[in-house]
Each structure stands twice: as structure tokens, then as C-alpha cells.
Amino acid sequence: MSKTTKKILVVNSKGGSGKTTIATNLAVAFANQGLQVSLLDCDRQASCLHWAEERDAQAPRVKTIATFDSAQALATQVTECSASCDVIIMDASGRHTDPGVFEAGLKASELVLIPMLASSLDIKAGERFVTDLLTHRAMRADPKPTGVIYNRAQTNSTSHQRLEDLLRCLDIPVIAELKDSAVYAKAAQYGAGVMEMRENIAASREYDAWRDIMIWIDRRTAGRRELPRPIQAGRKIGRSKISQNRVS
User: Fold this and answer.
1) How far apart, in Å, do the first and last CA atoms of the chain sit?
2) What is the pTM of this model?
3) Residue 77 falls within a domain, yes or no?
4) Residue 147: inside a domain, yes or no?
5) Reading across the β-sheet that carries 146-153, which strands appear in turn?
6) What span, in angstroms and rounded, lies between the C-alpha atoms of 43 and 101?
7) What residue numbers bound the domain in which 136 lies?
């Protein structure tokens, strides 16, 4: 198994938190750096697979594989992909949805990202999930760097402050805040990532957040000594799609 392969688990048991948005955009960001990326879809909704079906064949490749059938299927794919990939990203739901797959993903990963919304209901669900994650036997046996990505951020809300207070108590950092922007849905529609939508103003406003995410991952990935690469805006998607995606 390659010692240099990054293995990242994107996970939250709360539906609609943005797991697939984070996983696919992260995969695109790495692929546009020229890295070999495998995206393992561990969620039975198969959202990553649907995203991959729409991806332009000429875009930087993101190898997308269904691994939600069993924990063994996930473990096998992680082993196989580690031999040839620079980055493995796992999109998974929580232990109560599929405990075996969740545990296999947690064991295989070296870093955990938790997308989280800041509504009252999401904060309550997030508190339960984070507690569940930190007390899981796999996490206790092999603690991993864990960070929250605040999705659909509304930084002036009361809920936002409550979320920050909660995470501060748990000593888990918020590593980036993604805006509540329709550009993510538009990117998903074409199997793209926001970093590839170079002429889209709304997408460009998200670049700093994704740069923060990439740097945080680089700094906390085991065995990684070189300085993090600056993230680059990637390919243009087709001209007809650009015109549809341009936001003024």
C-alpha cells in the first residue's frame, strides 16, 4: 500500500449536509492538480455515481466506484486504489445508517471531514454525530485529524454562533465556510466542480474556502513533508455550459 496516498473520509449521518458536494469538489480540486483520484461512493443513494455520469469525458479524471454494498467491498477498494492513486476520497453516511461501511471507512481513512449546516436541527444532529464519531472504537484506537466544513454559511446567524461554541468545546476546528450558493448545484448538474468554472463569478468567490481546505488537508496528512501546492482553477467546461452557469 502506498505510503503517500491521502485517504480522506467525508461523513455525516444527517441527510442534506453536503457530503457529496464536499467529496466531489474535493476530488475535482485534487484531479486538477494532476493527481490520480479515486472517489469511493459509500452511500446507498449513489449521489457520487450520478455526478460522475454527467462528467465531461475530457475533464481531469475522477475514478468513481460504488462501495456501499459491504465493509469488505470498501476495504478491498481502498487497498486496490492505494496502489495507483494519490488520493482516495470516501463519501459515507453515519454508523446508524450502515455501521459496517462507516467503521471500514473510518479505519481506512487518515483524516475526517464533517460537512455541517448551522440550523437548530442540524446542530443537534451534528452534536450527536460528532460525539458518536469521537467515541467510536476505531477513532479511539487510531485518532485522526477531524475538521468541520461549515456548509451554506450564514455567518451572522445565531445558529452559526451556537455551532462555533459547540465545536470549540469539542476542540474541532471549522476549517472553511462555503456560501449558500446555487453554483454548487450547477456544478453538480454537469459533473463538475466549482474550481473548474473559471468564468463563473459565484464560483470564483468560493476559491479561497477551497484553498483553505486543501492546505488544511496537506498539513495534516501523515508523511507529507512538502509544502502544499496552491490550488488552481481548472478547465473550462463547454461554452454552452459556461453561458448557462455564468452568474452576474
Assistant:
1) 47
2) 0.84
3) yes
4) yes
5) 62-66, 37-41, 87-92, 6-11, 111-116, 146-153, 174-179
6) 9
7) 6-229
